[in-house]
Design goal:
The structure holds 2 protein chains of 2 kinds. By secondary structure, chain A is mainly beta. Chain A has 1 helix and 12 strands. Chain A is globular, with a radius of gyration of 17 Å. The model of chain A has no long low-confidence stretch (mean pLDDT 95). Chain B is of the alpha/beta class. Chain B has 6 helices and 14 strands. Chain B has a 6-stranded mixed sheet with strand order 1-2-3-4-5-8, covered by helices on one side. Chain B has a 6-stranded mixed sheet with strand order 9-10-11-12-13-14. Chain B has a two-stranded antiparallel ribbon with strand order 6-7. In chain B, strand 6 and strand 7 form a beta hairpin. At the A-B interface, loops of A face strand 1, strand 14 and helix 5 of B.
């Protein structure tokens, strides 16, 4: 896998990674809309987003479905009513992102980081989400039914009205998670870790 | 820079191959596994494996050392002078080495084992069995746990918040995430504040 450029934004005291082939980050770019439009145009044309770092951007009603999204940094981004159905997500950083009414059905995902994210009314059903981190994420009214969550981490997360039905929870961690109205029906919670979880 | 990850399923270990795009030379982090997938990556991309960086000498992290050495003959870096009968080039805390055209900062972070090393290449930190996503690695005794947490706080959590963490086991992370959600570190901070 190629990793996004580690070049930092040239603006003084800004530690954010710069946009691909640019010297500044998304926040300090003067043409934010054009940056997003280019990204979406590329996505439509190639069905791929790779090695991209775009921090604190907003995406609404964008169709990321059946795409390959890899080795990219979307920290602090907001996704509203976006669809990622049947996409491949490999080694991406979505830390502290907000997902509202997003669909992630039948994903092939591994090594993704959703730590600190806010996930509202979103659907991950039918997905492979192995080795993914949802640590400290707040999930509301969302579903992870029929997912493979092998070695994934929900520790310190807040899960309210979330279902994990018929899912593989082997080596999955829910340590110190706060859970209300969470369903594990037909799953294997006995193979997950719930140390310190508040049910 | 490219980073290839490989999940060695027998011991649930993440193994990484870091490739310099400019010259296609690479360093490998740990020698847990050398299966067809890694060989395919190396051969198909015509990668020249120049060095092997060992995070610590526990068997599951070095068990393919002999095979890798035999095929690619990379330079071997570790805290110990000898691993599995192979002489190493010793690295200690804050040593900076240059391999495959990349500067690699070595950080000695004992606790899980006395020879535990982390390696930082640009903004990627390879933590082996020291800092994992959300917890710290297992230690044999409380005094070693205290040592490990102290070393992590002093040497790793002082790095830039956006530094990417590539641990020896489990999902990826960032330093910012570990500062906020690493349960072992949060617990240690809480006890110190009592």
């Amino acid at each position: 896998m190629l990793m996004f450029s580690f070049k930092k934004c040239k603006v003084e005291n800004c530690h954010t990674y710069a946009l691909r082939d640019r010297d500044i980050c998304f926040h300090h770019s003067l043409d934010k809309e054009a940056v997003i439009d280019n990204l979406i145009d590329d996505l439509k044309r190639t069905k791929r987003i790779e090695n991209t770092s775009i921090v604190n951007a907003e995406f609404e009603n964008v169709d990321f479905s059946s795409a390959f999204i890899g080795f990219s940094n979307f920290a602090f981004c907001t996704f509203r009513e976006c669809t990622f159905n049947t996409s491949s997500l490999i080694s991406n950083f979505f830390d502290y992102a907000v997902f509202e009414r997003c669909e992630f059905k039948d994903l092939e995902a591994r090594y993704n980081v959703f730590s600190g994210a806010m996930i509202i009314k979103s659907d991950f059903s039918g997905s492979n989400l192995i080795l993914s981190s949802f640590m400290g994420a707040d999930c509301f009214q969302s579903n992870f039914n029929n997912t493979d969550l092998y070695f994934s981490n929900f520790s310190l997360s807040k899960l309210i009205s979330v279902s994990f039905e018929d899912s593989n929870l082997k080596r999955c961690s829910f340590q110190s998670a706060l859970m209300r109205s969470v369903s594990f029906r037909y799953s294997n919670p006995e193979e997950a870790s719930f140390k310190g979880a508040r049910l | 820079m490219r980073i290839y990850s490989h999940f060695a399923s027998q011991h649930l270990i993440n193994q990484f191959l870091v490739v310099n795009d400019e010259n296609m030379e690479a360093v490998m982090i740990d020698a847990s596994d050398l299966d067809g997938k890694i060989i395919d990556i190396i051969e198909k991309n015509r990668i020249k494996l120049k060095a092997l960086l060992i995070t610590h000498s526990h068997y599951e992290h070095v068990k393919s050392l002999g095979t890798i050495y035999k095929i690619y003959n990379p330079k071997l870096y570790a805290y110990k002078e000898e691993i599995e009968g192979f002489k190493t080039t010793r690295v200690t805390d804050r040593t900076v080495i240059r391999e495959a055209g990349m500067d690699i900062e070595c950080l000695h972070v004992p606790g899980h084992s006395l020879d535990s090393m982390c390696y930082k290449i640009e903004s990627a930190l390879f933590t082996g069995d020291t800092l994992q996503s959300g917890y710290i690695s297992q230690t044999n005794a409380l005094v070693e746990k205290e040592l490990l947490i102290g070393e992590i706080k002093e040497k790793l959590l002082t790095l830039d918040d956006n530094t990417l963490v590539f641990p020896g086991h489990g999902p990826l992370s960032k330093i910012r995430i570990e500062k906020m959600f690493n349960q072992d570190i949060l617990e240690a901070n809480r006890l110190l504040n009592l």
